[in-house]
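Figure S4 source data
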Amino acid sequence: MNLEDNLIDYGGSRFIASALKVNKSLKHISLKLNRLDDKAGHKLCQDLEQNKSVIESLNLSSNLLGNSFCESLAEYLKLNESIKKLDISCNDVDESNAATLKDSLTSNFRITEIQVRNNHFTPETEAEINEIVLKNHLKMKHITFTKLGDCKSNFNTNCFVQIKEKSRGRRMRIWKKLNRLIGSLPWVEETTQNLPHPAKEQRMCRALVQKYEMRTYIFV
């Protein structure tokens, strides 16, 4: 159901909630670019939880959603077993709710895609949220996520090494050091694309999981 850019506010969201009580099969909802405030978002999450919805993707980007909404969203995510894609970018959620959101994402490993950019999170918090969701995706594929510092040198499985560095020159220097450290082995792949955007990183990760028979994803 695509209801993007329709000036929907709290009143309009009540009609949507009423419809969801009847429709138990709806899988996708986009309310992007509307006027949903904190009250509307808070109530919508409560309604989705109470109605036992089977929604798989929820897009609430570019509204007026804040901390009360985020608290209700966290509660909804802890109990929900269907949602896989979530977009709450371009809202007014701030750092005070970061821990609550991260906790709910950690407990709900079904969520494999998320957008939280252009809220009021620190870059560190955004990175932590995206890392949690990346781990969720890898867990669904039975792939181990580890950091280089925790690795042993005697791997016997296929691995993918991602170097989190935007500059290709610096990335290549890191790559050469890694080769000297662990050897030029066929199971090592380098990130050759510039990945400043979390969505691009998530898409690339999924593509690599499909392309290679990976069992370990190494984060540098």
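Figure S5 source data
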Amino acid sequence: MKPEKFNGNESLETFLTQFENCAAYNRWSVEDKVAHLPWSFTGAAAQLLWGSESLSYVKLLEKLRWRFSGKGMEEKFQTELRRCRRNQRESLRELAQYIQRLMALAYPGEKSKLAKHIASEALLVALSNTEFELKIREREPANFDDSLRIAQRYEVFKFAVESRATGRHRLNRHVSDGYASDRSVAGYGTTSRKSENEVTSVTTSQNRSAISIYWNICY
């Protein structure tokens, strides 16, 4: 088992928990931890290694927490949480997971009702759809999971109704086009019959005129 990489953008506590689990599974000593922990750093976290060659494991952890678990980092993630908006093709599940991650970074260890309310509010605002947001609020969701469940149900129903409406529109167009085609053919037949009747009428009239002239000449 190998430890995950850490670049400073993810949750430090999550990374350290995974690292300790990996160390326990591999039965690493303290010296092994000192060797493997710096190897896991990338990006901005790797800069922490400058001048840290002689630090013990405990001191290395202290420096790591001071750099990536300070109040400034929490405020950064709180701001990111307030500005979070749903991407065009992002599913509700993906959006919810991202918000939960930001909550863990912005309010580490917080499990109060206030934290759950903040997460639920962040999800509704991130939808960027006033009508969608109002419909969920009308249901008075009790917590974050409840808000997510209502949003998912509404989106499924909305998709089903719109798909059904689109199918009816296509069917109506097909029927309308077929009816117009039938009327056109029927009209053509009527015109043809009318023309034939006119020709027959003219021919009959001409025949009658010829007979009348013949009788006048003969008698």
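DSSP finds eight helices and no strands in the chain. Confidence is low (pLDDT under 50) at residues 190-196, 213-219.
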